[in-house]
Amino acid sequence: MNDYPNPAFAFSVEIAGCVSAGEASFREVLGIRAAMELEAVVEGGENSFVHQLPRGVRQGRLVLKRGLVKRDSQLIDWCIQVLEQELDKPIQPRRVKVSLLDETRNPLRAWVFLNAYPVLWEVEPFHASRNDVAIERIELAYQSAKTYVRGSANGALVHGH
Questions:
Q1: Is the distance from CB of 98 to CB of 107 less than 8 angstroms?
Q2: Is 4 contained in some domain?
Q3: In 10 A of CB 97, how many CB atoms?
């Protein structure tokens, strides 16, 4: 193992309930982030600064992009169930795991998103003058996320600090 940054093109996505290997093949994953929300508090009589107090961590949305697949996709069936049911049935959240892989395809770091569900599904624009693949974009909201890093002793993933 080297000390150089790992390339971002080697990654995998696992979505509970989507069993086929090609079902979770994506060309791009974005939105792995957490941001501390702050509350500005002005102290009476003090004009040189404003206190920035933490309010909590706000999670982003996980965005998955891939080539538009045929209709019999378990992932797209799930998106349709959630986005077209008009909330007359409970949403079935799923666990999603994104792993950054090393040169031997073993995970270096992984992010597990709990109780994820689709909040947007769209097809990116078509262009008659380009030779591009049709791309679908799926955005997932989630309840919480955990980060795991590869431990130095045995190579297993352990919860991040």
A1: no
A2: no
A3: 17
**Interatomic CA distance for residues 42 and 22, integer angstroms:** 53
β-strand partners of 66: 136
The pLDDT tens digits of the residues spanning 102-134 come to 888 888 889 999 999 999 999 888 888 888 888
Domain limits at 101?
11-34+60-159
pLDDT, tens digit (0-9, with 9 covering 90-100), for 66-81: 888 766 788 888 888 8
In a domain, 93, yes or no: yes
Closest C-alpha to 13, from 161, 156, 149, 138:
138
In a domain, 146, yes or no: yes
CA distance 60 to 85: 24
How many domains is the chain partitioned into structurally?
1
